[in-house]
Amino acid sequence: MDREAYRNCCSLVKITRQSYEQFWSSHFVDYIDRDLSYSKFFRKYLLPNHPCMFSKRFTNEWKCRKQWVTEDGKPNFQKLLQEFDQTPVPVANCNAKEYNANPKQVMPFREFIQYWKEYIQNGHSSPKGCLYLKDWHMSRDFPEHNVYTTPVFFSSDWLNEYWDHLEVDDYRFVYMGPKGSWTPFHADVFRSYSWSANICGRKKWLLYPPGQEEFLRDTHGNLAYDVTSSELHDKGLYPHTEEACQPLEIIQEAGRSSLLMYVFFQEDTISINHNWLNGCNIDLMWQFLQNELSSVQREIEEWRNTMDSWHQHCQVIMKACSGIDYAEFGLPLGYPRHPSDALSTLGPYHAAFDLQRVAHTVESLLCNEDFKRLDHSTMTVQPETLLQQIKDTIQSTRGQHLLYQE
């Protein structure tokens, strides 16, 4: 990040994002084929949360692009079997519905590839349905393979930095599936950002701007499962569908990556995806968690006066539904990142921006009544201590001209 980009955003308590209406009405997504500075990418796409598409030149040197794909652009089943063989992998059935997702099973990789071959031979059909290898933590399971490199544009990644530190989980995935595979309409985990790169094949994305999901709920408040289904025209079931804007439709070719939700495989496809979080969207995650907790509290409000630990129960239920609670949200904020890595990759202004964003978020946490009621003893760093440490760091670096206040 350069000085100009930093000075334009360093004092933002809440990031004011550009209007989505004008952007979506153009039905146009920028296609990036030339070298682009991180600062320009930060200002134009990361901070305002605007989608874009990168050309295949950004992934041409990836090992997976060279080894996982045949000369005619198809999945190289032989090479993939050599690398993963009996590895257990998660496989979803696109022809079945379980709540708002496709049910999954775990099967050996070799068994999935055998199914995929037969599916192609049978004209892309099978009595087993359309099976889709989904949410496979390949990078975590095979770190020595180094089949791709995260582009610098997505390298500020608090979410995976924290989980890598714990050595428990990550939000890096591999997807593989035959033509016809698809993902139900959804918002990404914790409202994080997402980037996706096709190793081979083609995907169609349907993207809606934030807020449009409220028009795509049924009379029970459930989000539409398939936004291409004819049942959305049933006003008795979906009374507000006509108020929704038309989605952005993006065709993602092999090698191309996108900043990104409905996804449909138009060809046999392999792709890599990361969910990630940083100072640009930490406020979106925090707002998401507050909304989730409010929903839980409304659902069990009648039990409030019968439980001494009602507030803690709400946190437990929220974590069961969304995967995280307030205390766990606070943990990555206190995770001690490596300043040398950040400085060498993104520069001192980006490190300064991160400090500002963490400070604003911690201040918001400390003012939140539900957060005040929690037991903070499980947190690695107490939020009050963390906030003071950040303020001390900001104060000490002012003399080095790293931080600029408006």
From TrEMBL:
SMART domains in UniProt: JmjC
Keyword Metal-binding: yes
Pfam families in the cross-refs: Cupin_8
GO BP field: positive regulation of translational termination
GO cellular component terms, semicolon-separated: cytoplasm; nucleus
GO molecular function annotation: 2-oxoglutarate-dependent dioxygenase activity; catalytic activity, acting on a protein; metal ion binding; sequence-specific DNA binding
Every JmjC domain range: 139-293
Catalytic activity: L-lysyl-[protein] + 2-oxoglutarate + O2 = 4-hydroxy-L-lysyl-[protein] + succinate + CO2
SUPFAM superfamilies noted in UniProt: Clavaminate synthase-like
Record key words, sorted: Iron, Metal-binding, Oxidoreductase
Swiss-Prot/TrEMBL cofactor(s): Fe(2+)
Protein family: Belongs to the JMJD6 family.
Protein name, UniProt field: 2-oxoglutarate and iron-dependent oxygenase JMJD4
Record lineage: Eukaryota, Metazoa, Chordata, Craniata, Vertebrata
